What does this fold into?
Amino acid sequence: MRMYDLIIKKRNGLTLSNEEINFMIEGYQNNEIPDYQMSAMMMAIYFKGMNADETLALTMAMVNSGEILDLSDIDGIKVDKHSTGGVGDKTSLTLTPMVAACGIKVAKMSGRGLGHTGGTIDKLESFEGFSTDMTSEKFYTQIEEVGIAIMGQTKDLAPVDKKLYALRDVTATVDNLSLIAASIMSKKIAAGADAICLDVKTGSGAFMKDEKDAYKLAKEMVDIGTGAGRKTIAVITDMDQPLGNNVGNALEVKEAIETLQGHGPKDFEELCLTLGSYMLILGEKANSIKEARQMLLDVIENGSALAKFAEFIEAQGGDKCAVFHMDLLPKAQYEIPVLSEKSGFVSKIACDEIGICSLILGGGRETKESVIDLAVGIKLLKKKGDYVKQGEPLCIIHGNDMEKIKLAKDRFLKAYDFSETEIAPTQFIKAVLEA
Ligand code: URA
It folds into this structure.
């Protein structure tokens, strides 16, 4: 077999076989296929696409390029959750203890923030001492004993995806739906869960700005998960404005805890209840959405979800007192309100811009090496549809550096648009896709 022939085949719009895809991925991993040939192949795929069988074959070839976690010794159905990323997305923090309190075991690999989106690990490090560095033995024991363990993405899971992603990043071939779906699902499948619940975001703060693209991506990912023998559900949700009110690491942790206490923002609570219900159904703990929703509301009401969160924080070395005394979490020196320069109904919030404001304040990374300031961020006081009078605060900026606060404030004001007439509420949960 020759890579040259495979490139011509794909360039001419033909279908690659399993063997051909395995040959290509193994050869690329072993450095037998050079970057320039793989770049040509990625561009051919970008233009000619891949069918469902090819996408599944590519995913499985990437899964098989590294370690595959075996969670079979842990009792019960292990359910994983994945979000395609957004602004103010603190869902894993609230959702995992909610479902764990209902008896689902959650084994999660999480990442750090990069660009305008945040990462679960950075947020959790707002608890002093918290660490995601752990041996596989500790990971498995903690899942058995606590019901939740979150560790950092290891370089051994789907390693060829990392190499290929770096190549796509510099050859303008990232934004092909099949390639994205294969990349995300290869890491999820290698992480070993029996069932996967996907939160596919759409809107100005999401990877998929267009709802139709989000739908197609969700379908491709559900097809891959199902083809790989994992029960998979995707929920398409709105990311056309930040999720909840708080953006920034410790601020998001506070909002996650408030939601576990039963007084979180409505959109965020609704997302946790929706995803959580599907996770309970995937994990065979509930037979209907109605039953699942009630179970989740009960664990919030009786405090067991919050207690589970504290138990998890402590198990990973964090100071659990901060769960019950949030003033122990990192706090910024300044809290500066940003006053609206106009009156009207908020008609648009450039969601990625709000993520960038948090980044400017020091809450995100410009490069992989950047050290982040966990205390800084933005607390939104007005969201889409709300009426604002000129001079009323739109948000409170939490910052430690007045120069950065000024930059973030100027940028923040440009992210809002207003209308004289009322705005129809946006549909937050847009669709649910099952196999
Ligand atoms: N996230 C991934 O892991 N892979 C992609 O290709 C895009 C987003």
In short: Residues 105 and 147 are 5 Å apart (CA to CA). The mean pLDDT is 95.
